[in-house]
Known about the structure:
Elements: H1 15-64, H2 69-116, H3 119-122, H4 125-138, H5 142-152, H6 157-170
Helix pairs in contact: 1-2, 2-4, 5-6
Protein name: Chemotaxis protein
Amino acid sequence: MAFxxxxxxxxxxxxxxxxxxxxxxxxxxxxxxxxxxxESVSVLAASFTEMVDDMSAIQDALEALPPSExxxxxxxxCSTTQEKIYxxxxxxxxxxxxxxxxxxxxxxxxGLSSIIETPNRLYNPAEWCRFQEEIRGRYTMETEKIMFDxxxxxxxxxxxxxxxxxxxxKSSEDEIEIF
Length: 179
């Protein structure tokens, strides 16, 4: 059975179905972007790993040569390049945090769609409370929990972001670790 849409509404038209459709589009966009980004980052990570191996081999070969100005210059360039590679690998970890956050958004939007399209859940405060607890329970970063709590306490998006940023500036709990 085809449901009517907002472009041709009839007596079967529902703002809830329209909301669920928009949420589904948002989930599809987030998940599609994550897939594309993950593929690109995987290729880059593999390339950087190979570069680290190549730079180590070059450094070993240079160190086996007799000391000279050119050898020492090449060793300095190897060292500088290795530092840049490690800095780049460090930056990839920020992508991992972004990916985690977007996965949480996607899961939350799917769950929200499920509640909205199920009338006995839509009008049941206990369902909403359980769903909110599930969402918060998935968070791995303290900044996510701070934003969630702030929004549920009635703060604006800007206030929630400011609180999370303040926490990030004062804490090392969400810091990236070099692997």
